Amino acid sequence: KMDDDDDIPQLSSHTLAALQEFYLEQQQREGMKTSQGFNQYSIGSIEEDWQLSQFWYSDETASCLAREAVLAAGKGGRIACVSAPSVYQKLKEQDGEDFSVCILEYDTRFSVYGEEFIFYDYNRPLDLPENLLPHSFDIVIADPPYLSEECLQKTAETIKYLTKGKILLCTGAVMEEQAAKHLGVKMCKFIPKHSRNLANEFRCYVNYTSGLD
């Protein structure tokens, strides 16, 4: 009796291995999302949406900016992240530290973070919930979604409304003059990196003595 398996086309072992790996990765990704151990705050737990002009920072950059924010906010400080979700996620990873944080973001996928999420559209810079009091944050970290003066100017209104004084702005190097004009911030030596390389050179700007120089 002939071996029935002979007619079945065989995939090369190489293709098979690649396929298995692909499915495994997919399962792991899905599994991670449902398993207890999954860190919902890790960068990439919500994927970038380029149509919303989203680009996450590299892990190193997000950590560095989060550290700076905590130091600048001081003990029991309040930190607002405006359109800077990867810094928010890094701050949340340091749970138990003595500070509180809010995320103002257009992308409603971040509403999974509950009460700390505030829907934010830079076109309506002061359309904010009543419980978000003026000058109630020790530091505001902002990364306006677009490199345009209009976007910076409108985001600046929000920043100035929220902050008690300290501002940490991340935007393109080309925005240096506008950043100084609208927010009185100066470029730092620290160069933020993104998890994917961007065509535009990115820089950080502050209006206080920071650890980013």
Mind explaining what this structure looks like?
- The protein is α/β, with parallel strands linked by helices and 213 residues long.
- It has one domain: 3-Layer(aba) Sandwich (Rossmann fold), CATH 3.40.50.150.
- The protein contains five helices and seven strands; from the N terminus they run ααβαβββαβαββ.
- The protein has a seven-stranded mixed β-sheet, sandwiched between helices.
- It comes from Dasyornis broadbenti.
- It is found in: Cytoplasm.
In brief:
This protein has 5 helices and 7 strands. The protein has 213 residues and is of the alpha/beta class. Strands 3-2-1-4-5-7-6 form a 7-stranded mixed beta sheet, with helices on both faces.
Q: Pairing-aware structural class of the strands and helices?
A: alpha/beta
Whole-Å distance between the termini?
79 Å
How many structural domains in the coordinates?
1
Mean pLDDT: 84
Low-confidence stretches: 33-38
CATH class term: Alpha Beta
Q: How would you name the CATH homologous superfamily?
A: Vaccinia Virus protein VP39
Q: Sheet bearing the most strands, described?
A: 7 strands, mixed
Figure out the total of helices: 5
The SSE order reads HHEHEEEHEHEE
Q: How many strand elements?
A: 7
- Any idea of the CATH topology? Rossmann fold
What is the global morphology? elongated
The order of strands across the largest sheet is 3-2-1-4-5-7-6
Q: Helical residue percent? A: 25-40%
What is the CATH architecture term?
A: 3-Layer(aba) Sandwich
GO molecular function: nucleic acid binding; protein-lysine N-methyltransferase activity
Protein name: EFMT1 methyltransferase
Pfam family, one: N6-adenineMlase
Subcellular location: Cytoplasm
